[in-house]
Amino acid sequence: MDTEFIVEYIPHYVEAAKLTFRIGLIGIVLSLIVGLVIAFIQYFKIPVLKQIASAYIELSRNTPLLVQLFFLYFGLPKAGICISSEGCAIIGLCFLGGSYMAEAFRSGIESVEKGQEESALALGFKKRQVVGYIILPQALSVSIPALCANMIFLIKETSVFSVVALADLMYVAKDLIGLYYKTDEALLMLVVSYLIILLPISIVAAVLERRLRYAGFGN
Question: Tell me, what CATH number does 30's domain have?
Answer without folding.
Answer: 1.10.3720.10
